[in-house]
Amino acid sequence: MANIRLKNIYKSFDGLEVLHNLDLKVVDGEFVVLVGPSGCGKSTTLRLIAGLEEVTSGEIQINDRAVNDLEPRYRNIAMVFQNYALYPHKNVRENIVFGLQRAGASRELIAERLGKASKILGLEELLDRRPSQLSGGQRQRVAMGRAIVRDADVFLFDEPLSNLDAKLRYQMRSEIIRIHREYRTTSIYVTHDQTEAMTLGERVVVMRDGIIEQQGNPMEIYLKPANIFVATFIGSPSMNILDARLFPGWVEVGEQRLPLKRKVDQGHILIPEHGRDIKFGIRPDFFLDARFSKSRVDLARIENVRIDLVESLGFDREFSIHAGGQAMKARLDLRTMAGEGETIDLCVDMDMTHFFDPDTGRNLFV
Ligand SMILES: Nc1ncnc2c1ncn2[C@@H]1O[C@H](COP(=O)(O)OP(=O)(O)OP(=O)(O)O)[C@@H](O)[C@H]1O
Ligand SMILES: [Mg+2]
């Protein structure tokens, strides 16, 4: 078991800085997901922890001890990659126990660890097969097995599921959660898939361009995004960001005035009587069809919303709409019968909306 600490980490490649003063704590037994767009520095962060890259400056600690100068093999970290890196000529059993054998583990210990891991991973029937005789999901499980039997202090996962189809990815996600509950090994999991981050992470760390934009549990990140980047990166379809003006008591979007319940004017930002330009954020999921929300007097109303496109998602439908010249998306259930070219009235709970600074993107009320 282990806790991990990254302290003021900078990393440059050929003079180009890709991680800027990264600070991260992972406590013993935690499952932390690093998520962010391609190139933001997720894999680099993992490779620094594993010791496969050297930091340019800063300290990496495992169990409160600096490990900057410790070789990878002494860090007791197991890494699972996107390409499983299995030995093609070894069977499943041999692939799983190879590391243990090389470390000189006893036959009894190897048998015990292999037995437990193959049971948990559902590999018992497949131990004699070669990797080429396995499906993608099964190969991924072998790669997990290899990490598990080593009894490492830390698991590092670098997009381990991105080669799998949607259904298998979903299944493997549940398995990874189950395995973590069983072993409670401190884990850092990298993905650029925000759905994966939200379902797997006990804590989600959102990165962009080599910095941490926000960290918290998935609900905090979803409901209280620190800025426009996090707000639009997490959640699908993306949060609508509209040009608006904030007044003490209401927000003006186009020609519509949406009353505010909360006392924003008592907050810590200045809202002049003549209004302040802001970016107004509403998640597509938080719109309601006004026809089915009549009893909800607490909701704000957006009228004469024009429907440009309707896409069916099964129970829900995704509406591309516009109001006051601004395009947005709304997700409504099957009861909403209105179709393309028609107009509807929508309701929104203003407590679920966000106000962002148009210059910095910062959420004004988080
Ligand atoms: N060995 C290297 N030499 C030079 N530049 C590198 C090297 N490794 C990574 N980089 C650069 O560092 C930045 C971060 O790369 P990294 O692989 O950590 O991104 P990532 O977040 O894992 O992206 P992805 O989601 O595409 O895997 C990128 O701009 C990348 O080009
Ligand atoms: Mg990567």
Topology:
Blueprint: E1 4-13, E2 16-26, E3 31-35, H1 42-50, E4 57-62, E5 65-66, E6 77-80, H2 92-102, H3 107-120, H4 136-149, E7 154-158, H5 166-183, E8 186-191, H6 194-200, E9 203-208, E10 211-216, H7 218-223, H8 228-233, E11 240-247, E12 250-253, E13 256-259, E14 276-282, E15 287-289, E16 300-312, E17 316-323, E18 326-333, E19 343-348, E20 354-356
Bound molecules: adenosine-5'-triphosphate and magnesium ion.
The CATH homologous superfamily of the largest domain is called P-loop containing nucleotide triphosphate hydrolases
Please write the CATH class name of the largest domain. Alpha Beta
Ligands (ions, cofactors included): adenosine-5'-triphosphate, magnesium ion
Rounded to the nearest angstrom, the radius of gyration is 25 Å
- Helix count, per DSSP? 8
Shape: elongated
Distance linking N and C termini = 34 Å
Return the CATH architecture of the largest domain: 3-Layer(aba) Sandwich
Based on secondary structure, the structural category is alpha+beta
Largest sheet: 6 strands, mixed
* Overall pLDDT confidence: 91
> What is the N-to-C order of secondary-structure elements (H for helix, E for strand)?
EEEHEEEHHHEHEHEEHHEEEEEEEEEE
Give the total of beta strands.
Answer: 20
Major sheet: arrangement of strands: 6-7-8-3-9-10
Spans of at least 5 consecutive residues with low confidence? none
Summed up, the domain count is 2
Instruction: Please indicate the percent range of residues in DSSP E strands (runs of 2 or more).
Output: 25-35%
> Might you state the CATH topology name of the largest domain?
Rossmann fold
